[in-house]
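Worked problem 6 (solution included).
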Amino acid sequence: MEDKHMRRQIGVGVAATALLAAACTAGSTAQGPQPAPGPDERLTITVASQFTDRELDSFNRVLDGFRATHPNITVESRGSQDDDKITQAIRGGNPPDVAVSAETVNLGQFCSSGAWQDLGPYLERDRTDLSQIPQAVQDYTQYQGKRCAMPLLADVYGLYYNADLFAKAGISEPPRTTAELTDLAKRLTEWNPDGSIKVAGFLPVQASQANHPWNWAPHWGARWMDEQGRSVLGSDPAWAEMLRWQKELVDFYGWDKLVQFTAGLGQQYSADNAFQQGRIAMAIDGEYRTGFIEEQAPELNYGTAPFPVTRPELYGTGLTTGTIIGVPKGAANAGAAWELVKYLTTDTDALVELANGLNNVPTTREALHDPRLERSPQYQTFLDLFDGAKLVPSPASPNGSAYMKSTEDFMVKWQSGQVSDLGPALRELDAQIDAAKSMGG
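Solution. The predicted structure is:
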């Protein structure tokens, strides 16, 4: 899914807030689960997704499998439908029957506003086994006990490293701790004759490449919220530890040199991606990067590993997020829509085919271990992370990704030297996040 979950979630998540607040007044939700259509009952359901081009083609091929087993149900697939477009349709009383979203952080809005229907009654009626889905994935598809979505493939984040640059520097193993990451970043960095950066061992710049607070936080064991949903960035010492680690590397390179270096890097999702071009020796990224490398830089000699951690017991931790799918409020054919949602999220054949087509991780353990799942040694790292017990999701919030945007904005100021007293500044950030959440909720 080309990291669309995190690549666009900040802007889309904030923009969708007002729309989702209005969505709770649109349509009506049927009491209890609607029955599946009988075999002689012919009807049409629409599926709205963000997929385009190759991804949409792969998705549509999987839909063909559902059509084959449900010949009485016509499925119309509409791509290029982001959360804003889907929410506008819900608000206008003309929702799709099935909605697919790459913006997992909007789940709290979908559930709390009622824009997506509660799937709990369907799961209970059909005795759907959720134990096949890792707990972290179950967590990011429900909000405050209400399951208004099911997972449709996942992303997992880990470390990518350039094996040739490692060999050139005499390094035989990837780092396991953040202290080792710092040391290797410095050893792997190459400088131009004028003192500018030629190759960065590790780029510490937030909001560049896949460097985002949500991708980093799990490896320090940093928590976003307490049990009451209050921001804890100022009280959890892991955040200050992570930011001071970042600042050490920023100061090693020099902020002005980093600004110059990042300005010359290729876009994250283009063929001239900095890691793929050998401009960065180590990087954090998702499993989908293996597909980009296979297509755009097949000669690149690289390895993957769990991202380094600040404490040994955290090793094997990784952020997980993913595509979610649900039934919008006011869907004309909710019973048939649920049959499709159930098929796409629990049928092993469907999940394996979709995972192979989109280069993402299937979200049931049976599909994860299916021999038909295509896997390279580099990709296997992410399957192992997903199969472990240390996956970490970002918590859902009633105002979506606003807390993430605020945190990243803060880290951008911190790395450039605009924040002097870290502790009080983080506590002030907590207050701002909680105030915005109260208004958004």
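Discussion: The chain has two domains: 4-155+320-392, 157-318.
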